[in-house]
Amino acid sequence: MSLMTEGEAPGPVRFYLACDDIGCPARAVFDLVIHESPPPIEEDLFGHILHSSARAAPYIEEQGWTFTQGIGYWCPTCSKPRSERPAPPRPGRRHIARRQRRDPRGPQ
User: Fold this and answer.
1) CA–CA separation, 15 vs 4, rounded Å?
2) Mind listing the pLDDT tens digit for each residue in 84-106?
């Protein structure tokens, strides 16, 4: 699951969002003030648990993130078709200082 919360409604709730596309490092953290209390846990367990995320869903969508049932959240870049995404960076050669070769005859 890529959406986690910290805090309890009513009041400020902090959201932690991570892209579920394989290998994508995209993350987002934002705060929302939720004025409504969640339904009582005894009456509606799922409504109580999902209350904050349901209030945040329009904001998350407005920021370009998409949610797919069973897959999770994808960042704005990964939400685009692959043909429209920027090319991933090519790995470059690292310039590592090489140590000098040892003389096969041993120390002189």
Assistant:
1) 6
2) 877 766 776 666 677 777 777 77
